[in-house]
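Minimal example, chain plus glycine.
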Amino acid sequence: MNVLILGSGGREHALAWSLAQSPRQPVIHVAPGNAGTADLATNVQLDIGDHGAVIEHVRSNGIGLVIIGPEQPLVDGLANALRAASIPVVGPDKAAARLEGSKAFAKAFMDRHDIPTAASRTFRRNEAAEASAWIEQEGAPIVIKASGLAAGKGALVCLTKDEARTALSELLDANALGDAADEIVVEAFMEGEEASVFVLTDGKDFALLSPAQDHKRIGDDDTGPNTGGMGAYAPAPVMTPDLSATVVETIVRPTLEGMAAEGAPYSGILYVGLMITNEGPKVVEYNCRLGDPETQVILPLLKTDALTVFEAVANGTLSDLEVELRDGAAACVVMASAGYPGAYEKGFPISGIDMAGQLPGTMVFHAGTIRDADGVLRTSGGRVLAVAAHAPSLEGALSRVYTGVSLVSFEGAQHRTDIGRKGLLRRSGASGNSSQ
Ligand code: GLY
């Protein structure tokens, strides 16, 4: 079996790694990939926005399965084009990907199907005065979101009315996020602990992967600006079996049934970002793909052969398969360039990856890396790599990960030192509450 993975981040390296573990020994192509995927797959220079070029690559290389990593090609309808060409694909059609591509659609959908989420109102760009009046009436804290895709920068948590006024003006007057803010969603602030639930679905049946927790802020104790995610661990103890059952019945099942009833059946991976509030779990956002860096911890916890699982998702045969998860826990810590999530320099040599990768149960997943003409591994992005590990316990996984992190270096490297702390605290009986 030949498989094509689309994307270039740590998520796609972890996907390639999981397929490379398969006893079925698939041939793996990654487009465009990174220096890490080049070690276990063939990197392909393809414009993944060009649907015809992707189909041509699939046909000329005997690819039997395509896994689409990032959201933009899904929102742009690449999965529709592949399905129309009878190519098995993991990823929802354009109409289903609106759950991530349009926050306005997602909020209205949740209202239509009584799916718990924060109360909200949607405003178009020409309704700035109404949005402003609403914010003055509701007060702070309050959350303002660009409805469209904004590369993780679209949700502004405003703790004061002044911050909310500034956020509104940046989105609507200064056009900071362009067309993504042609509609904005203003929603009530939710307090609680966040968790990420990943649903594999072939449009008929579904199975859950291990629930995870991301760390979105750059600094320890959830301080500083938001990032793409600085580390993750799974399973997240906040998602008890009872809570998981509640999430399935009040959120996952109504979402999948609701999308099917509205003529947009969802097939692929549904990532439900949750806030576990005192009133129960509520949806913060839907994403139409795997999370990054959550993938780097949930795939090492997948016991069933990953190739067989993704094939079943693409071919509609999930009911024939029992998706089993491994015991124990996994954690990962992202190492980022100095200055990230703001401006950063690239091109610094990276050392220590081989040593870290030889620690027991430990993997290094590349994100922003390239190999120069002399074969030297260098930084080429904000999030450079993640050290990930699996162990019998969360403590063990974190210990392996931080040992790995201590072995890897590049100029200006920054990482959080508190990944997994909320999970450890919760296991010891304390709450790990934070906020949106
Ligand atoms: N970890 C956040 C995301 O993938 O969107």
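The pocket of glycine is lined by residues 152, 214, 229, 287, 291-292, 294 (CB under 6 Å). Residues 70 and 105 are 19 Å apart (CA to CA).
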